[in-house]
Amino acid sequence: MYTLGIVGPDASAAADRFVAALDGRIAVIRHLVEDGDGPRFGQTRANGDGSRIGGAGTVETDARPDGSSRARAATTYDIGDGWDAAGEADLTLDDTLDRLASDHDYAVAIGFPDARVPQVALGGVEVPDPLATATDAAALDIEAAIDALHDRPERKTLESLVASVKASPRADRSGAIATFTGRVRARDAEDDAPTEYLEFEMYDGVAQRTMRTIASELEERDGVLEVAMHHRQGVIPDGEDIVFVVVLAGHREEAFETVRDGINRLKDEVPIFKKEVTAEETFWVHEAERDDG
Amino acid sequence: MKWKLFANLAETAGTKQVEVAVDGEATFRDAVDALMETHPELREEVLDEKGDIREHIRVLRNESNPFVADDGFDTVLEEGDTLALFPPVSGG
Fold first, then answer.
1. CA-to-CA distance for A73 and A93, rounded, in angstroms?
2. A202 burial type by CB count under 10 A (0-12 exposed, 13-18 middle, 19+ buried)
3. Does the N-terminal or the C-terminal CB of chain A have fewer CB atoms within 10 Å?
4. Any CB–CB contact under 8 A between A242 and chain B?
């Protein structure tokens, strides 16, 4: 799922243009703020009627800040096929996006300037590394922004990868799914300085192609039906997931063997570089390993 | 000719991308020399005493290793080639 943020006074109108131009299942998440007049959508009142965006098959999630910088979802989801749930006041934007990733092609998050997603910035609002900037929604080059979005990493989760392999045309031959999840470990021993975050740099394009090559080679094995891999980029805090390998196979033995070989090959071959930041120091992990060796 | 640098090599050079000018018929060795002229601070980390690429440093020419796919330092480059230099990978 591609995730697109839009910030600025005209964000809601820009979202309408994106929703109209994108193909596939789209979720729209709007930032809800509380003020003296009760809850309202963060950046929609100035220019719009607050009407909902989307149609059949789209999910809308209204989110609001919780007093810190984290976003919290409001209590209602509206889903086009009639399902409706309430009472999820503690859902963050990240939680919401993870939940949407399994069955949506795009998520559009309106009014979350601090979110770690590719952002379109309107009316002079400043965000790091924007996809596109414009004075207002009408001035935005939507096609160019969509092309730029497609060059950014997709949001994937273990669940979205499992869903993708289950959708394989060969799934009727599958009796097993094995998965590997790599996470940010805070400490390796009791007296370690705790790791605060890891930062991953990737040789963009080459890294993704190398992962696809490894997956296709593993899929040539007898009884291995689908292999999916995903590695996140940028800053990943302690406790979060880094990498997933998912194998759809005929039987458990080839599933276990292939998931192990998949993560081992990814770690050996894919051009990704890890910087570690602990409470005490910052270092490139390959340099620390060379010093140890 | 474009060099891409990664991780600590990019930090040492202060940039992730370096354009170097080389003549027609230039070899991979010429491109390495041109990079070291522009960014001499990389030499210690990238080359050993004999001027070879250090064992742990990886190089790519258009996404494949010129020491495996081509003729190593003697590989004749083409205009528009992208060369990459990086330390041991550490994903996952």
1. 7
2. buried
3. C
4. yes
Nearest to A110 by CA among A9, A234, A1, A235: A9
pLDDT in tens, chain B (92 residues): 899 999 999 999 999 999 998 888 899 999 999 999 999 999 999 999 999 999 999 999 999 999 999 999 999 999 899 999 999 999 99
Q: Which element (helix H / strand E) includes A206?
A: helix A206-219
Q: Touching check for A129 and chain B: CB below 8 Å? A: no
Question: Which H or E run contains B67?
Answer: helix B66-69
End-to-end CA distance of chain B: 31
**Among B residues 10-39, those touching chain A with beta carbons less than 8 Å apart:** none
Chain B residue numbers touching A129 (CB-CB < 8 A): none
The C-alpha atoms of residue B78 and residue B38 are separated, in whole angstroms, by 20
State the Cα–Cα distance between residues A125 and A129, nearest whole angstrom: 12
Secondary structure tally for chain A: helices H, strands E: 7, 16
- Tell me the Ramachandran region of residue B91: left when phi exceeds 0, alpha when psi lies from -120 to 50, beta otherwise: beta
A146 token code pair:
């969509």
The answer to whether A100 and A1 have CB atoms below 8 angstroms apart is yes
* Distance separating alpha carbons of residues A223 and A225, to the nearest angstrom: 6
Name the one residue in this structure whose structure tokens are 């930032």. Answer: A31
Task: Tell me how many residue pairs between chain A and chain B have CB atoms under 8 A apart.
Answer: 66
Q: Do B91 and A231 touch (CB under 8 A)?
A: yes
Given A206, A270, A284, which is nearest B7 (Cβ)?
Answer: A284
ipTM given for this complex: 0.93
The one-letter amino acid at A61: T
Q: Are B4 and B49 in contact (CB under 8 A)?
A: no
Phi and psi at residue A234, to the nearest 5°: 75, -150
Contact B89 A275 (CB under 8 A): no
pTM of the complete model: 0.82
Instruction: Identify the CA nearest to A14 among candidates A154, A150, A135.
Output: A135
A263 CA to chain B: closest CA distance, Å? 8
